[in-house]
Amino acid sequence: MLKKIFNADDFGMTLGVNAAIKRAYEEGILNSASLMVNQKYAAQAVEMAQNMPNLEMGLHLNLTNEKPAANPAEIPLLVGADGKLKNGFVNLLLLSVLKPKQFRTQVAKEVWAQTQKYLAFGLPLKHIDGHRHVHLIPAVFQEVKKIAQAHQGARIRIMNENIFNTVRQNKSKSWLFDGGVIKYIILRLLTWWNGYKSDTYFYTILYTCKLSKAQFENVRIPQGYKAVEVMIHPATPDIDRAHLADVWDESVLSPYRTQELGVLLDKNVLEGIN
């Protein structure tokens, strides 16, 4: 039987994200989450997870925002004068090409520091993925593979979605206009470059952060996979608007976050994936 993994990214990011994940687990179909260890509300997320025995937990590797887990002085390529991580996905990819030796050394320090911080919370490491998919950058991916191997083969999210299969089953063509197809091509190429195979199929990259129930009607997963992972970003914007000082990514205030929470609260969504 196909295992259906609904994974909430960004656990620990804000109060509103944490509240949405808790609700989606207790009232809906959420069964997996990825923790951002270098966030203000990571400790609260861990407390919540301790009361969610069937929630599979993993590391949401973050190399783009807020404070690093490693000593900032040891990773100057990654941090700015304010001591915070300063690069987006594109800059990290360019640095991996232009300054490969320095980049690999510094990324390894931060990746392992975040892993140790995750393990210090006492959580089992069931999977690893990355905020803004940074874990798929080849130099980063090599470190992630080492960590996965050291932890009984923790699942690594890769981009193996078949675009033709997805397009055939979904009427919405929003991905043509919001960058979804460009994201798909880049991440698919990086997955190919990394040469890593998984028996878990990834679904929904074309509609990232804009999932609706329509994306889960009569979905057919290609044969040969043991599981399917849906990446989803629930939040509670009303809570986060009351704590704007804690919000560094305004996407948590988007109505799409509420829409994605609605997907997780609808148990009929499970029946649409086969």
What are its keywords?
single chain; 274 residues; alpha/beta; seven-stranded parallel sheet; 9 helices; 37% helix; globular
List the helices and strands and how they pair.
Layout: E1 3-11, H1 15-27, E2 32-35, H2 42-49, E3 56-61, H3 89-98, H4 100-120, E4 127-130, H5 138-150, E5 155-156, H6 163-169, H7 180-194, E6 200-203, E7 227-232, H8 237-241, H9 255-264
Parallel strand pairs: 1-2, 1-7, 2-3, 3-4, 4-5, 6-7
Helix pairs in contact: 3-4, 4-5
What does this entry look like structurally?
This protein is an alpha/beta fold and 274 residues long. Helices cover 37% and strands 13% of the residues. It has nine helices and seven strands, in the order βαβαβααβαβααββαα. The protein has a seven-stranded parallel beta sheet. α3 (89-98) packs across α4 (100-120) and α4 runs parallel beside α5 (138-150). It is globular.
